[in-house]
Specification:
Elements: H1 5-19, E1 24-27, H2 33-36, E2 41-43, E3 46-48, E4 51-55, E5 61-65, H3 72-76, H4 78-104, H5 113-120, H6 122-141, E6 146-149, E7 156-160, E8 163-167, E9 176-180, E10 186-190, H7 192-196, E11 212-214
Parallel strand pairs: 1-3, 5-6, 6-8
Antiparallel strand pairs: 1-11, 2-3, 4-5, 7-8, 9-10
Length: 244
């Protein structure tokens, strides 16, 4: 697992926000089994929960959940899920070298090999829509306004049967996250330009750990993506502090 010094900076800033009164809820994913064993426990100022209902500034209520409980492959065909993780990580590694080649050829923009594969493979597209429909159905049954989830590494925001569906994607390939604005509006943001500037390293990537957190979402690796200030933007301007 790769852990840069800038990761410590991000963690410290999240801990500082929690210490100063911001509510921080960590919702672990299926790659965080050790954390799931501590659901309902507070570690200092941070709580670990399997799911959470977040009330936005505009009064709308959102279910915060990782989403693997809606993935039939993960639930019933664990070996296929493991193969899928291996395949996805292989595509991400290959994409590092493709990005370097694109920069050498002065090809603008960011292109994701993993994202291309998902769009083109019919079974993958069908799986994504089945997952989204299942998550939206459960949210609607709970009489909530929307849902924020992850798991499938496919960042999107759309309306499904009257439910606001948002998926944060991941911070390995798509470099995406979800922010809540001061007026309660939820938005998926992409840092693709910063991802293009990422230097090519030895193809060692972090585990596909994309746990969803209430109010506080992980900031990017400042050493890997120059120009992003981990102390600004997401942590300091996009998140509402209680009482503001």
């Amino acid at each position: 697992v790769q852990w840069a010094p800038s990761h410590n900076t991000v963690v410290q800033k999240v801990l500082r926000r929690a210490h100063h009164g911001d509510t921080v809820i960590l919702v672990p994913g299926n790659h965080d089994e050790a954390l799931r064993e501590h659901a309902g426990t507070a570690f200092g100022d941070i709580r670990v929960e399997l799911e959470w209902v977040h009330t936005a500034a505009d009064g709308k209520r959102y279910l915060l959940v990782h989403g693997d409980q809606f993935d039939q492959v993960t639930l019933h065909h664990r070996w296929l899920a493991v193969l899928g993780d291996i395949g996805y990580n292989t595509l991400v590694r290959a994409n590092l070298w493709l990005s370097r080649l694109r920069r050498l050829l002065r090809i603008p923009g960011y292109w994701s090999l993993a994202g291309y594969a998902k769009r083109k493979v019919k079974t993958a597209v069908g799986f994504i829509f089945d997952f989204e429909d299942s998550v939206a159905r459960e949210t609607r049954n709970r009489q909530l306004d929307g849902v924020v989830c992850g798991h499938i590494h496919w960042a999107t925001e759309r309306e499904i049967g009257g439910v606001r569906y948002l998926n944060c994607g991941d911070w390995v390939d798509s470099c995406s996250a979800i922010v809540e604005h001061h007026d309660g509006r939820m938005e998926v943001i992409h840092w693709t330009e910063a991802a293009v500037a990422q230097p090519v390293r030895s193809p060692q990537i972090p585990a596909a750990n994309d746990a969803v957190a209430a109010r506080v979402l992980p900031a990017p690796d400042t050493s890997a993506r120059p120009g992003w200030d981990a102390g600004a933007g997401l942590l300091d301007s996009e998140l509402r502090r209680p009482g503001r």
